[in-house]
Amino acid sequence: MTSFEVERLVMSPAELKVREALGGRFTNWPVVYVLNGTREVYVGESRNFVGRMRQHLASPAKKSLEVARVILDDRFNKSVCLDLEAYLTSLFAGDGRYTVLNYNDRMIDSDYYARADYRATFNEIFERLRDEKLFERSIPEIENSDLFKLSPFKQLNTGQAVAVEAILEQLFKDLATGAGSTAVIQGDPGTGKTIVGIYLLKLLQDIAMSDPDETIEADSVFSELFTEQNRELLRDVKVGLVIPQQSLRSSVKKVFRHVPALSPKMVLSPFEVGAAREKWDLLVVDETHRLSQRANQPSGMQNKQFAQINERLFGADGANRSQLDWIRAQSTHQLFLIDSAQSVRPADLPAETQRELIDVAKAGERWHPLASQMRVRAQTDPHGLDYVEYVRRMLSDSPPAPQRFDGYELRMFDSLAEMHAEIRKRDEEFGLSRLVAGYAWEWKSKNDPNAYDIELDGCRLQWNRTDKDWINSPGSIDEVGSIHTVQGYDLNYAGVIIGPDLRFDEASGRIVFDRAHYFDKKGVESNGFLGRTYSDEEVLAFVRNIYAVLLTRGIRGTYVYVADAALDGHLRHYLPYAPR
């Protein structure tokens, strides 16, 4: 039986007078409300709805909001209302129909009594609002979208919130004194590094653009940051988000177009940072491990640009200069988001440079580790390894004890065609289910659209036809994505093809690299600038990283097909095998 009511009213002083006269739950009870106009929406909660509405009516920023829907439930309390407010805000942001006017200062994921029961009611409330045309898409459709997954309106867990608060408190002190700073957020895949970076930028913009007369609820985790002094410190402060990967950068730009406080112009490539004539006060660098050292670039134009940027910034094109140096030279404050185990090419920022960054941050008490896994829904035995560590160990020279993960569909296939068929089924059921693979086959279809790239067991497939937002592109369910199209993204189910670039050498009992079956030219080529060549053992470390990234994309499950028979037999000790 439905316990809630949704009352609709026009935003006007006369309407509020009527509601005030009614009293009760409109003046002295916790409620959640949704205000909307033609293109904008605001979600709030209050114990005194009438009083809060008068504040909104007086706000120029909310003059476009014409209709209020008040969600009433005798069971509501403050914790429930805060959770429902955050839940609806995140869904509105992911749906994309309306521009969300909320600050993101209260988007914190906090537990409370009987939360699971209330959450079931939240879904009913969503459907009621959807019936009233406030949402266009279903919850699964919203949750599968980049607008939702990369939104600044995601609820932070405790560890993420602690990191954001500490970073901003330190930043405001530095802005006041004029000192520069370097901070690091470090975490495994799925710990939400990208989300923290986006959330932090939105929160900074909220503080900078906040109306001094706007009431910031005292129970907001970040309410103490909304001060006149901080607003003044942020006056004319220039911020940016640097993303080395083209595909992820393109997706984040799309998200920023839907957020009033943010702009696609804030999302930058390292080359855009290096070539800019003006500097930034703060640069947040996502996937820092993917910044390039001085190496042969994907195009002749980028090689020329790399040299020109070094000459302009440092007076000469030195082989010791990397894109990290550009970031430092072009900004006063930097926040680096790092996972060293996700470096996938020799040209990526060297491991020792990443360690130096982390050491500097630790010395300044500006190192913020993230530990909670937010992506993979694999329940771990308290005495076992978490899923990410288990996968990394499985591919290493020190494999783990065999382990199972409850609540997660993890299994191997001996037929690529069968795995593809299962991925298709999961995509029909949940969406966002794709095949991905290591770069163990030539990209023939790049020049011949009728050619097939991967042919195994009578199954013929092509690599991704686009390198921008491939996951959401038409036909991607029948293509295979590479590391360069999926790093930084979530999938519901990932069908991972481990190609013949990895073999199991039974004589040594080790996983080894087979250069003859590796076709990422940038993954093996020598570095003439540094006078470096890369041995099979050195490239093996990158290829292991690639497969570890691919094997940790799936939220609900991961399927695995292994081309090398000996490696297939080896991995059967660690991964469940699909029944025939």
UniProtKB/TrEMBL annotation:
Coiled coil (UniProt feature): none
Sequence ranges assigned to domain Schlafen group 3-like DNA/RNA helicase in this UniProt record: 182-564
Record-linked CDD domains: GIY-YIG_COG3410
A UniProt-annotated Pfam family: SLFN-g3_helicase
Organism domain of life: Bacteria
Protein name: Schlafen group 3-like DNA/RNA helicase domain-containing protein
Annotated source species: Gryllotalpicola koreensis
Organism taxonomic ancestry: Bacteria, Bacillati, Actinomycetota, Actinomycetes, Micrococcales
